[in-house]
Each structure stands twice: as structure tokens, then as C-alpha cells.
Design a protein that fits this description.
- Belongs to the 4-toluene sulfonate uptake permease (TSUP) (TC 2.A.102) family.
- Keywords: Cell membrane, Membrane, Transmembrane, Transmembrane helix.
- This is Probable membrane transporter protein.
- There is one protein chain.
- The protein has one domain.
- The longest helix is centred in the N-terminal third of the chain and has 26 residues.
- It is globular and about 55 Å long.
- The chain is built from 11 helices and no strands.
- Helix 4 runs parallel beside helix 7 and helix 5 packs antiparallel against helix 11.
- The two termini are 27 Å apart.
């Protein structure tokens, strides 16, 4: 691989790491369509290669989130435990289906997640008087048992799509359990670390991970993740959710274009 390609991967990794740190998504949602579109990879190879970058980036992001607000380790560990086995199951499913079908499934999944974020942002933008009239129910506590069940669901999706566990977990944690956006992002990323490790091993074992591309992406990403996390804590929650939804819609557009 030429020095130009390595330099381009380092620069792209830096941009992806920054955006992933801001949005709490590990950057994989950006990297996968970019690898398919710019480097002509199959969906499976793009997902495996993105995981090389995603895993260390997630670890760095979790460390930075934890420095800002302490993560509930019992909840995070329970969610991670639930995700491990189901991530392997999801990865095996993904490796056994057609690449174009997997890509379209990925686009549909992200589209509905983005719609949910648009709805959530719109709901919170209503006038305060109208929100006050709406009946209020006490939010359930996000216990380790509930985190374990959520981890199973997120693990399956994370293995199947290479990424996506945290993308699903964040809106569930914010809407059902009503935790702040940044707290939800920190917990969601913590829960997917062991599962992402299993997914990376599974994709690599199947020959669906390009380490020559993934390694420089990871190095570039790690440099800029801390900057993105700092910015995430300075942005208003509504603006952060809107940015998240916009990023998902952009990813869907890329995937449709690739199809």
C-alpha cells in the first residue's frame, strides 16, 4: 500500500474519530459507507475493516466520557455481558448473506433510527406550556438486568452490521430511561466493547478485515476522539441529537447511492 493511501487513511481516521467522539457512535457508521464507496469493498469487508478502527476508538471515547461523568460500571458490565454471545451470532449471520442485501438492511436500520431522533428532537422543541400539559410518568430505573437485555439486542445488531449496537442503545436509554444524551452515549459505548472485540475476531477469522487500511484509520481516529468528546459536553442536548440524526440520514444516502 502506497504512502499516499496510508496518509489518506490517517487523515480520514482523524475526521471519523472526531465526529464519532462528538456523536458517541465510534465512527463506524461513517467509515463503513466510505470504505464501500471510496475503496470498493464489499459490505462484509467494510464492516470488518471498520471494526479495526472502531474498537480502540470506543475505548478511548469511554475513557474520556468517564473523566467527565462517572459511568455506572455495574450497568455497563451487565450490558456488555449480555452482548458478548449475541454479537458472535450476529456476525455469523452477516458473513452468510449477500453483500448487497446486508447493505440495504443496514440502510433501513439506520433510516428508522434517524427518524426516531428527529421525532425525539421535535418533541423536546415544543413550547414549554404544551410539554407541561402532557401527562408525566416516572421513568423506569436502568438496572443491570435491563441493561443485560438491551445488551443482547444491541450485541446481535452490532455483530450483524459491524456497528450499530450503540446507535440503538442510545435512543432507548434516553427515551425510555430518560438519562442525559452524553450519559447514554457513555453507557452505550461501554456496553459494546467486549462484543465489538468478538465481532472483530470473527470477521478477521473469516478474512473480512483489511488491517493495512484499518490500522492507520485507527491511529488517526485515536488522536481526535478526545477533542470530539470535549465538544459533545459543550453542545446543547437538542443540537447533539439533531447532529446525530443528520449523520445517520447522510449515511443512509451514501448506502443508497452505493446500491
Amino acid at each position: 500500500m502506497s504512502l499516499f493511501v496510508i496518509a489518506a487513511c490517517l487523515a480520514a481516521g482523524g475526521l471519523i474519530g472526531f465526529m464519532g467522539g462528538v456523536l458517541g457512535i465510534g465512527g463506524g457508521l461513517i467509515a463503513i459507507p466510505a470504505l464501500v464507496l471510496l475503496m470498493g469493498m464489499s459490505q462484509q469487508l467494510a464492516q470488518g475493516t471498520a471494526l479495526i478502527m472502531v474498537l480502540p476508538t470506543i475505548m478511548m471515547a469511554v475513557r474520556k466520557y468517564n473523566q467527565q461523568t462517572r459511568i455506572d460500571k455495574r450497568v455497563a458490565l451487565a450490558g456488555a455481558a449480555g452482548a458478548v454471545v449475541f454479537t458472535w451470532v450476529g456476525a455469523q449471520m452477516a458473513l452468510g448473506i449477500d453483500s448487497s442485501l446486508l447493505r440495504r438492511s443496514f440502510a433501513v436500520f439506520l433510516f428508522f433510527i434517524a427518524l426516531f431522533y428527529v421525532w425525539q428532537t421535535w418533541r423536546e422543541s415544543r413550547p414549554a406550556a404544551r410539554r407541561a400539559q402532557a401527562p408525566k410518568r416516572e421513568a423506569p430505573v436502568f438496572t443491570p438486568r435491563r441493561a443485560s437485555v438491551l445488551g443482547m439486542l444491541c450485541g446481535t445488531l452490532g455483530g450483524f452490521f459491524g456497528v450499530g449496537g450503540a446507535v440503538l442503545a442510545v435512543p432507548i436509554i434516553t427515551s425510555v430511561f430518560r438519562l442525559p444524551q452524553t450519559t447514554a452515549q457513555a453507557l452505550a459505548l461501554s456496553m459494546v466493547i467486549p462484543g465489538s472485540t468478538i465481532a472483530l475476531i470473527t470477521y478477521t477469522w473469516a478474512g473480512q478485515a483489511n488491517w493495512m487500511v484499518g490500522a492507520p484509520l485507527a491511529i488517526g481516529s485515536l488522536v481526535f476522539v478526545p477533542i470530539g468528546v470535549k465538544l459533545a459536553y459543550r453542545l446543547p442536548e437538542r443540537k447533539l441529537r439533531a447532529c446525530f440524526a443528520a449523520m445517520l440520514f447522510a449515511t443512509v444516502a451514501l448506502l443508497v447511492f452505493e446500491s
